[in-house]
Design brief:
The protein has 2 domains: 2-328, Purple Acid Phosphatase, chain A, domain 2; 337-530, 5'-nucleotidase,  domain 2. Helices cover 29% and strands 25% of the residues. The strands form 7 sheets. It has a 7-stranded mixed β-sheet. Strands 5-4-3-2-16-17 form a 6-stranded mixed β-sheet, with helices on one face. The termini are far apart.
């Protein structure tokens, strides 16, 4: 049984709490992060899996599999007398038509059914403003926390979003604190009444208050990303464990593709080692950290792993049935007409992977238009990410998803002119093979020469009508797949500066652009030319 003591630091400071953890207290932390509305199972591209592929055993995750994994572990562990906490490190919102259709309602229903104990606010929980977040907060039956936010002046969430929480776990007081990335004011819509504080300052204040109140175990459930989790571990004293989100990072004990070991240990200012974990994203993994504490509440043991939720995990039947029921109106949404096109929009792979195509122009123009006011100069979209053409006439949301099925998010970053050219060289390096890396662009133009060797094919690069300055810095928008180095764009991953990989979904950006420019007139304008 887990009891919750909710409230502000001031309230907690006045409580008479139980003594710190008993000797060798062990907690099992089951955690997810960045589900991003992947209510349904996902495919290997992290987008919604088709029913056919799911039946063939080729899919992962989905909340029904998360439920099975959580319930199985929780029942086994609690049956053996162990203590279990189920945690979410934020960003349930945005990423599929489940969010477009239900906003946060479906997420709240599924999280209640699974039985979460605590959640951290992610930045995308603010996508529909404080009122949209409040709607979700009013439905969930577990606390949601964000310790570096002052929401006292925002009436929509002031009484719903908590600073931190103390959980009574079989008589042991476990404090859970949190921090949300401060650039949420730029990446989402928290509004002017929500004040962000420095993460480290806010977390240290919460640790100090909880420690003074007699809480011996303190877990930081954060949504700031792994680099900042490491920075927090190095700077804050008194945090025992960090369970993170935001950066979609795979921590694993065995997976060779992991970014970090599970857990990764970081030394705090006093030389105490702090374990950090995260479990990728999109419901593909469930993290399970077993951590033991001595009678002073200090970590003496921690181990675990991220569990892949593949076809071997049988979906919970009741939740799967409810997901199918909720999916009905989404099929109707796919049929929604969002605009019209004056002519056919060419998205054939043979065209878009070898030359300028009208679908490439549409998508790249939509990307650039969405973030132009953020100082972005150019857009680069891989031709392989365009999967279909659209006929003249009415354009439906389903057609947009057919063109852009991967549920990629916009990614913005800065590159030098030299790195932009290097990216274009990568993009045209495998045209002969029909590779998907071919760069469709907006805000710029270039020429490529197939008779030249790969790596020296690009010339005449222009940005806003002027020759590119190899030493200048340009704002770039792409998709999160490419920004992570996909399709050979390692220069984005390695040299991209001030990167933000979690913008709105590309399909929604394009749908909004078509709607705003309907009837849309497809075109090519010579922005990409081949040398003769």
């Amino acid at each position: 049984m887990i009891a919750r003591i909710l409230g502000s630091t001031a309230i907690l400071a006045g409580l008479s709490l139980a003594a710190p953890a008993a000797a060798d207290t062990t907690l099992h932390l089951l955690h997810i992060n960045d589900l991003h509305s992947r209510i349904q199972p996902i495919n290997r591209f992290d987008s919604t899996c088709s029913a056919e592929d799911d039946a063939a055993g080729e899919c992962f995750g989905g909340v029904a599999r998360v439920a099975t994994a959580v319930n199985t572990l929780r029942d086994e562990l609690e049956g053996a007398g162990e203590n279990v906490l189920v945690m979410d490190a934020g960003d349930q919102f945005q990423g599929s038509l489940f969010f477009t259709t239900y906003e946060g309602d479906a997420a709240a229903e599924m999280m209640n059914a699974i039985g979460f104990d605590v959640m951290a606010s992610g930045n995308h929980e603010w996508n529909n403003g404080p009122e949209g977040f409040a709607r979700f907060l009013s439905q969930v039956d577990f606390p949601v926390i964000a310790g570096n936010l002052d929401v006292s002046a925002e009436p929509a969430v002031a009484d719903l979003l908590l600073d931190h929480v103390v959980l009574d776990v079989d008589g042991t007081q476990v404090g859970v604190i949190s921090a949300l990335a401060t650039d949420t004011v730029e990446t989402s819509s928290p509004g002017e009444n929500v004040v962000f504080e420095d993460e480290i300052t806010a977390l240290q204040a919460d640790v100090d208050a909880l420690t003074e109140a007699g809480v011996g175990i303190i877990i930081a459930l954060t949504h700031v990303g792994t680099p900042d989790d490491i920075r927090i571990a190095e700077a804050v004293t008194g945090i025992d464990v960090i369970v993170g989100g935001h950066s979609h990072t795979l921590f694993s004990a065995r997976d060779p593709d992991r970014a970090y070991a599970y857990p990764t240990w970081i030394s705090n200012p006093e030389g105490t080692m702090v374990p950090i974990v995260q479990a990728y994203a999109y419901s593909k993994y469930l993290g399970h950290l077993e951590v033991s504490f001595d009678d002073a509440g200090d970590v003496i043991f921690a181990q675990g792993d991220s569990m892949l939720l593949d076809a071997s995990v049988e979906p919970d039947a009741e939740i799967a049935a409810r997901v199918a029921e909720l999916g009905g109106p989404i099929e109707e949404t796919m049929a929604d007409v969002i605009g019209e096109s004056a002519e056919m929009i060419e998205g054939d792979r043979a065209v878009c992977r070898a030359m300028e195509c009208s679908m490439g122009n549409l998508v790249a123009d939509a990307m650039l238009e969405r973030v132009r006011d953020q100082g972005v100069d150019i857009a680069i979209q891989n031709g392989g990410g365009l999967r279909a053409s659209i006929d003249a006439g009415e354009v439906t949301m389903g057609e947009i998803f057919t063109v852009l099925p991967f549920q990629n998010a916009l990614a913005t970053f800065d590159l030098t002119g030299a790195d932009v050219v290097a990216a274009l060289e990568n993009g045209v390096s495998e045209i002969e093979d029909g590779a998907g890396r071919f760069p469709q662009v907006s805000g710029m133009s270039y020429t490529f020469d197939l008779s030249a060797e790969p790596g020296s094919r690009i010339s005449n690069v222009m940005v806003a009508g002027e020759p590119i300055d190899m030493e200048a810095t340009y704002g770039v928008v792409s998709n999160d797949f490419m920004r992570g180095g996909g399709d050979g764009y390692s220069v984005f991953a390695e040299n991209g500066m001030n990167a933000y990989d979690f913008g709105p979904g590309l399909e929604q950006v394009v749908a909004d652009y078509v709607a705003a420019n309907s009837p849309y007139q497809p075109y090519t304008d010579g922005r990409i030319t081949q040398a003769e």
